[in-house]
Amino acid sequence: MGDHASPGRRLSEEADALFPPRPFDPEAIAAGRRLFAREVRLIAAAADAAAIPPEGLPEIAFAGRSNVGKSSLINALCGRHAVARISKEPGCTRTLNFFVLGDRLALVDLPGYGYAEAAKSAVTRWNRLLRHYLKTRAALRRVCLLIDARHGIKQTDRPILRLLDECGLSYQVVLTKLDKLRAPEIEAVIGTTAAELARHPAAHPEIHLTSAREGRGVAALRAVLGSFAAASPSCALARPAMRG
Question: Where does residue 29 rank: exposed (0-12), middle (13-18), buried (19+ CB within 10 A)?
Answer without folding.
Answer: middle
